[in-house]
Amino acid sequence: MQVRPARPDDLPALYDICLRTGDAGADASALYADPRILGEIFAAPYAELELALALVAEDEAGACGYILGTADTRAFEARCEAEWWPALRARYADTADVPARRRTPDQWAAFLIHHPPIAPQAAVAAAPAHLHIDLLPRAQGQGLGRALMDRWLGMVGGCAHLGCSPRNVRALGFYDRYGFRRLEGAASPEVVYMAIG
């Protein structure tokens, strides 16, 4: 296995990995009618707008994981608002009129495209950079997560924050062991925010 810089032709694999880890680390393929919609939010904008900070883990079968992110969360949020979300909003209808408890996973994703989550100030104050890291099951437990994290953090000066589903116990354990600390001031029922550096 190797870690390498992402390339533009990795984009289909990034969409696939995002979907196959999109249910709190488990495969979300059965949850979404549109197999690209999660990747449109959590993977593709980084590959398109911050390719220099995108790394891919690869084995003999191809891409099996990634780490994506930005060195400046607020600037990235503004750039997505100007350059990424408008085209997607033209393709996906806003589902704000659907009661939250009745939205399907696809409708929730469409809602996020129109109302993208903004990082809590407590997380940005702890570390302005943020990241997303996902590994397919075949790549887990072999040190690839640590290799990706070491290399990516080295690219952004060693400080970053991230958000993780509280249901993703395996990932939370990895972040704890790696040295991330939980940010109580940024806690929510849906996301555990953590920072390092």
Gist?
This is GNAT family N-acetyltransferase. The chain is an alpha+beta fold.
Characterise this structure:
By secondary structure, the chain is α+β, with helices and mostly antiparallel strands. The chain has a single domain, classed as Aminopeptidase, CATH 3.40.630. The protein is 40% helix and 18% strand. It has helices spanning 11-20, 37-42, 44-49, 73-83, 85-91, 105-114, 121-126, 144-155, 169-178, and strands spanning 2-5, 55-59, 62-70, 130-135, 160-164, 181-182, 192-196. It has a four-stranded antiparallel beta sheet with strand order 1-2-3-4, sandwiched between helices. A three-stranded antiparallel beta sheet has the order 5-7-6. Strand 2 (55-59) and strand 3 (62-70) form a beta hairpin. The longest helix has 12 residues, at 144-155. The protein is globular, with a radius of gyration of 16 Å.
CA radius of gyration: 16 Å
Number-wise, the strands total 7
What profile does the largest beta sheet have?
Answer: 4 strands, antiparallel
How far the N terminus sits from the C terminus, by CA atoms, comes to 27 Å
Beta fraction: 15-25%
Helical content band:
25-40%
CATH architecture: 3-Layer(aba) Sandwich
Which structural class fits the helix and strand makeup? alpha+beta
Which CATH top level class fits?
Answer: Alpha Beta
Counted by DSSP, the helix tally is: 9
Please trace the helix and strand order, writing H or E for each element: EHHHEEHHHHEHEHEE
Total number of distinct structural domains: 1
**CATH fold descriptor:** Aminopeptidase
Q: Could you give the order of strands across the largest sheet?
A: 1-2-3-4
What is the CATH superfamily classification?
A: Gcn5-related N-acetyltransferase (GNAT)
